[in-house]
């Protein structure tokens, strides 16, 4: 850590990215850091002598650094021994540290990006963990619905529907995507935008929605109306970017 | 000889020796169905263990102290899945052996604790082509040998024999855990390197007590 890094105020949840490869860990930190400059991201890659493998002592040091200043830490791991070693470190760690560290069952790159963006938005430990683990679900069914089914079902099915035009110049990028998913977490409702879950930062970003895109917002559940209302309000005010 | 602290130290030194001798074999087995680092990693780990043993000012007081040294050293130096797996096995075994000598029931407890550690860490069960396929029959055989009135050395010999048979029985299996599981059915026909290293280590546990 450089002195400037050490003195910067970080988000309350840090990420530790454990890979068999030094380059892969460093690359994942670079990628996630681009979208979440306010989050402490610690790479632990390879063995101490630079070979492919896992570094028990390195993980131990990273956990201590990540949880310094009372922060929590979410850990992303690539393959088997990275997971086993991180678990072993946690088993042997003192209770106070272990209570603030969560190992994410998530794809390494997508989970790191989703967790970093969510942590950057100020989310707590469990929300950052959920963001990482939610990133894995985008592979099974959380894809955008085919275009053209917008006008299909009538309104008598309990679904709250609204359509708004995206106003902010930079489109639905990481920050507004994180705002949406964090905001909706407070409501007992399942909300989708153009067919993808609004709870998933990555799914929202993958929509590639640019300024002028029509957003079809649909909510189901006990608090669907409230959830869709706060959502449309944010879209109308351009997520504070206009 | 009795199964005491001197036995534990002897087991560890013999383990380092056998792993070193079989390093290329383990590398080759792992290259066929894994990432090829098992022999090199374990060899590095056990060399570090011996270096730590040599550096001790006075010999450990309990068997558990020896096994704990093995556990923590393997965890920090192996660098592959064998590190946390064997590390956890030796750590659990260490907790079960806080004494200066083991009777037959104590040897059973050691082997069972090691198996529990492997299972807890790797979340594998038998038939998945992993080191559990050697440790599990070893624990069963240890129980039977102790029930039949065998000495601590007899119990270790029975465990070693069963581990060897268990390791050979992994050959036709398709891996469903660990790196080899990415190969699926293509892993069939190959001896699992983790089961093979387990066989080697338990053989030395028996030899050290013979």
Structural summary, described in words:
The complex is a heterodimer of chains A (242) and B (210). Chain A folds into 2 domains: 3-137, 3-Layer(aba) Sandwich (Rossmann fold); 160-240, HPr-like (Histidine-containing Protein, Chain: A, 2-Layer Sandwich). The two termini of chain A are 36 Å apart. Chain A has 242 residues and is of the alpha/beta class. The model of chain A is unreliable at 1-7 and 141-154 (pLDDT under 50). In chain A, helix 3 crosses helix 4 and helix 6 (108-120) packs antiparallel against helix 7 (125-134). A 4-stranded parallel sheet of chain A has the order 2-1-3-4, with helices on both faces. Chain A is elongated, with a radius of gyration of 19 Å. Chain A is built from 10 helices and 8 strands. With 210 residues, chain B is mostly helical. Chain B has one domain (5-209): Alpha Horseshoe (Serine Threonine Protein Phosphatase 5, Tetratricopeptide repeat), CATH 1.25.40. In chain B, 69% of the residues lie in helices and 0% in strands. Chain B has 9 helices and no strands. The N and C termini of chain B lie close together (6 Å). The model of chain B has no long low-confidence stretch (mean pLDDT 95). Classes of the chains: A alpha/beta (242), B mainly alpha (210). The A-B interface holds A 47, 51-57, 79-81, 84-85, 87-88, 91 and B 35, 37, 41, 75-85, 87-88, 121-122, 178-179.
Summarize it.
The complex is a heterodimer of chains A (242) and B (210). Helix content of chain A is 41%, strand content 17%. Chain A is α/β, with parallel strands linked by helices.
């Amino acid at each position: 850590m450089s002195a400037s890094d050490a003195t910067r105020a970080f988000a309350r949840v840090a990420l530790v990215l454990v890979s068999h490869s030094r380059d892969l860990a460093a690359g994942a930190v670079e990628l996630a850091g681009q979208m979440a400059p306010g989050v402490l991201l610690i790479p632990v890659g390879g063995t101490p002598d630079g070979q492919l493998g896992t570094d028990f002592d390195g993980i131990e040091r990273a956990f201590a650094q990540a949880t310094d200043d009372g922060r929590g830490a979410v850990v992303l791991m690539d393959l088997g021994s990275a997971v086993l070693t991180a678990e072993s470190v946690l088993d042997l760690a003192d209770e106070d540290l272990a209570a603030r560290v969560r190992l994410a069952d998530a794809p390494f790159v997508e989970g790191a990006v989703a967790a970093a963006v969510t942590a950057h938005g100020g989310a707590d430990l469990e929300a950052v963990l959920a963001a990482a683990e939610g990133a894995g679900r985008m592979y099974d069914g959380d894809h955008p619905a085919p275009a053209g089914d917008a006008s299909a079902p009538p309104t008598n099915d309990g679904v709250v529907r609204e359509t708004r035009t995206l106003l902010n110049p930079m489109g639905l990028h990481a920050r507004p995507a994180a705002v949406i998913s964090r905001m909706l977490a407070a409501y007992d409702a399942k909300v989708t935008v153009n067919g993808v879950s609004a709870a998933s930062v990555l799914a929202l970003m993958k929509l590639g929605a640019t300024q002028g895109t029509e957003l079809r917002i649909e909510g189901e559940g006990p608090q669907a109306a409230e959830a869709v209302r706060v959502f449309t309000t944010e879209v109308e005010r351009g997520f504070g970017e206009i | 000889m009795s199964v005491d602290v001197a036995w534990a130290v002897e087991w560890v030194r013999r383990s380092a020796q056998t792993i070193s001798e079989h390093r290329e074999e383990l590398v080759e087995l792992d290259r066929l169905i894994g990432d090829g680092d098992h022999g090199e990693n374990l060899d590095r780990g056990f060399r570090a263990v011996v270096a730590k043993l040599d550096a001790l000012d006075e010999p450990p007081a309990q068997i558990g102290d020896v096994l704990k040294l093995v556990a923590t050293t393997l965890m920090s130096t192996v660098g592959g899945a064998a590190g946390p797996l064997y590390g956890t096995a030796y750590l659990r075994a260490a907790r079960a052996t806080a004494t200066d000598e083991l009777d037959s029931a104590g040897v059973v407890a050691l082997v069972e604790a090691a198996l529990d550690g492997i299972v807890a860490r790797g979340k594998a069960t038998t038939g998945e082509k992993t080191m559990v396929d050697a440790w599990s029959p070893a624990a069963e055989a240890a129980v039977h040998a102790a029930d039949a009135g065998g000495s601590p050395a007899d119990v270790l010999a029975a465990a070693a024999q069963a581990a060897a048979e268990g390791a050979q029985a992994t050959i036709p299996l398709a891996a469903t855990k660990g790196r080899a599981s990415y190969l699926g059915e293509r892993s069939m026909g190959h001896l699992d390197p983790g089961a093979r290293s387990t066989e080697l280590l338990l053989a030395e546990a028996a030899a050290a007590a013979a």
